[in-house]
Amino acid sequence: xxxxxxxxxxxxxxxxxxxxxxxxxxxxxxxxxxxxxxxxxxxxxxxxxxxxxxxxxxxxxxxxxxxxxxxxxxxxxxxxxxxxxxxxxxxxxxxxxxxxxxxxxxxxxxxxxxxxxxxxxxxxxxxxxxxxxxxxxxxxxxxxxxxxxxxxxxxxxxxxxxxxxxxxxxxxxxxxxxxxxxxxxxxxxxxxxxxxxxxxxxxxxxxxxxxxxxxxxxxxxxxxxxxxxxxxxxxxxxxxxxxxxxxxxxxxxxxxxxxxxxxxxxxxxxxxxxxxxxxxxxxxxxxxxxxxxxxxxxxxxxxxxxxxxxxxxxxxxxxxxxxxxxxxxxxxxxxxxxxxxxxxxxxxxxxxxxxxxxxxxxxxxxxxxxxxxxx
Length: 375
Ligand code: PLP
Fold this sequence. Notes:
With 375 residues, this protein is α/β, with parallel strands linked by helices. It has helices spanning 16-28, 38-58, 71-84, 99-112, 129-137, 160-169, 241-256, 258-279, 304-316, 344-348, 362-374, and strands spanning 4-5, 65-68, 90-93, 115-118, 143-148, 173-177, 196-200, 211-215, 284-285, 295-299, 319-320, 351-355. It folds into 2 domains: 4-12 and 258-374, Aspartate Aminotransferase, domain 1, CATH 3.90.1150.10; 16-256, Aspartate Aminotransferase, domain 2, CATH 3.40.640. The chain is built from 11 helices and 12 strands. The protein has a 7-stranded mixed β-sheet with strand order 2-8-7-6-5-3-4, with helices on both faces. A 3-stranded antiparallel β-sheet has the order 9-10-12, with no helix packed on it. α4 links the parallel β3 (90-93) and β4 (115-118). The chain is globular, with a radius of gyration of 21 Å. 43% of the residues are buried. Pyridoxal-5'-phosphate binds next to α3.
């Protein structure tokens, strides 16, 4: 049975070239980057070289890149420190954010009484930019805007430049959860005034357990965890040198191959839409119909009973897809994202999140369609 992986928004395979670099480091570069003798200094050089490679992709200084363990950690750290250390009193966000942001801002509201404002969501799954602008005009409280770049369930893409310039014009900080877009689209932080972004290597064919945060120099955050002087004391703990090196290699490859892979992935998505429409003329594509090029959220015209069994049946045939974000895919509860803009009737129907990668082929889509036809 051929295994078909259509859940690249949950995680991605590690590129063979990345694995090779990581194995080299594991074999040969076991020094602690904080040690002052030769093998320690060499490990440190590997970490700093990786930081430079990453910083270059975003046109920023390498001192603005801090390594973390994942996207969740980066989001938690930035949001918490913005409230505790930068005096943020109001957070503007949406109910479409990943739980790494949503649950964090709710916690900050409970702990520090920071005001939370949730933007309205339009039927297209987009935010109302005019509402954001109106809210930002009130500059009476230090404000942070946290909005994700690409939604992990429906692929809705934020207009980064528009939000960044609105925030800049009204002296608000802008944190963007870029976990789904890093490595899939270019972001020039020299020309886009975003204060903070976060990344997670396993979303762009790098290893799990490593990510990074960009913290613009003018914003001086404090650590949430205390220990050694690694990462300028902002993120103590011995660096996973092989993971850092693997992440930089994965990011570099993602951007070197971006145009070619984007064209391929977009063509797979288009093929999938066409094939779905052939089988289910009534199929709907949830959210912004154009969406980001690697995510397709599909509302299938099937009954509730069929919906309950669908993921299981697909899994039995070797097909990996999800109903929402990976952490919710086992849950029968409606997605917190879809429930923001679908009607109650549609929420009962099965929605599938298909997310494509450069390894997918049209044959994968044909296999998916053949199985869906039997449900
Ligand atoms: N933010 C978004 C938009 C995500 O899609 C994810 C993972 O699915 C995260 C944050 C959390 O990232 P990590 O799994 O690296 O903690």
